[in-house]
Amino acid sequence: MGRSASVFAQESGGHATLFQWEQRVRNFMLDRSHNQGGTHFNRGLFREHLNEMSPEHEIDLMTYRYTLMDDYKWELEEDAYRLSLGSLNATNFAVENTIKSTIDINAKNAVNIAGYHAENLRANRFLFYLGYQHTLAGKHQLGMTHTVTREKADLDATFYYRYGTFSDGMVEVDVTVMDWASNVVQDLAADSRNRYNSRYETTYQYTNSPELVSLKLVSPLIHNVRVELLGGLQTYSRKVVTQPADTLNFVDEEWAHYLGALLEYNHPNFTVGVTYQRTFSKLKRAPAENSRYDLNFGNLQVTNKLGFYAIGKLNFLRLEQWLGYGDNIDRLEGEKVPGDLTPFSFERIPFDYLEKPVTVKSRILYDPGDSGPTAGFEFHAEYVHPQGEKAENGVRNYDFRRTYPIIQDYNERLTFTLGYRFSRNFNLLAGISYDLDMDKQSGIGLPKITGTPTWFDGGFGRFTISW
Prior knowledge:
Largest sheet: 18 strands, antiparallel, barrel
Mean pLDDT: 92
Order of helices and strands: HHHHEEEEEEEHEEEEEEEEEEEHEEE
C-alpha cells in the first residue's frame, strides 16, 4: 500500500521530520506504567528531572539518537529496524530499539506492526502497536491501532482518519481512548486484595478517564517548501488512588499536551529549517475525602524549544548544523510538597525552576551513499543557563539544584564516528566522545572538590536495516 523503500531512500536526501519526536512523547502519555516511577509518579508525566540521571543525560541522548533527518528516512520505510545504544554511566546504557512492518492483505486493507523499546532512566519500555488500515476511495484511509503491553490497566485504542501520505502531504486526525480497561481491571484487583497478597495493595479508579485527541498536518513540497504541524491534547483526568490504609487515599488530577511545528526549505544541495517543540504536563495531588494522606501539592513542567538546522552537501561530504533554544519550567508548590526528592536528606523544598538552555550539534560526515565506509566528526554542547536569583554561594536557583544536583551549567564534547554502509538499506556506525569540559563542575554549579578530570565521554553505536 505504498512505494518501495529503495525508491524512497533515493528521494529522501534533504528533509527532516518531527514524527519520531512526537512518537516518543505519545509513548510517555500512553505507556504510563513503564515510565520511570510508574503510573502514580509524583514529578511530571515526561520525567524532565530525575536524580538517577547524570548531569550529562541530555547531551548523551543528543549524541546517541538519530537526527530529525534520519527520522525522515525512517518514516518513508514500510519494513525496517533500527537501534541506537550508548553509555549513560558506569552501569547503564541508553537503548532505543524500533521496528515496524506493513503487511498488505489486499489492495485496500493492511496490518501495521510497530515496536518501541526504550531504556534511558526516564523509561523502561517495551511497547508494541498493532494496527489495521482500510483505504477508501482515493487517498482517504480509516484505521485503528492498539497498544500491547503487560499491564492490563494501561491499554489504549486509537482510531484515525487520514487523507494523503507522509511523502506527498497528509492530514490525520486521531482519537485515543486511554486506559480503557483500567477501572474494570482495578476493580478486580481491589476485590483480590487480602493480607496474603500484597500485589494489589494500591489500586485506583478514574472518575474522569483521559482521552488523547491529536492532529497531524504535512504539506506537500511546494516551491521547495515543506511544513509539518503536530499536536495532541490529553483531556482532563481525575483518579482516586486507594492505598493499603483506607485513611491514606489521595486524588490525582492531570492535564497534558504537546505541539510541534516544522518549516523547511529544500534545495538539491542544501536544506534549512526551523522547528518548534513543546510539552506540557500539570499534576495536582491532594488527600481524598476523609483521608489523612500527608501530601498536598502541584507540579508544572513545561518545555519549549525553538530549533534551527542547516544541511549542506558537497559530493560525499555532508555538513550539518543543529541549534536549539529552550525555555523550560519545572515548578513544585503547595501546602505540603514531597520531602523525599533530595538525594541525601528529607527536606520539603518547593521550587520554581526556570532555564533557557542552548544546544548545539555540528557534524561533518563522509558518506558514499550507496555502499562503503563512513566517517564523521561532531561537536556537541549544552549550555543550560539556569535563571532566577543567586544564592550566597553564587548558584542560581539553589533550592532546585539542592533537590536535583544534576544540573551542570554546561557540557561540551567532540565525537568521532566510523561506520560502514553495506547498501542503502543496511548501515552500521560506532562512535566515541572526548570530554571538553572534563566534568570539573558539580551538579549544583560549583567546582568539584574531589575527583580527577575525565576525557572519555562515552561510546555508542547505531544499526539500521530495511527490507
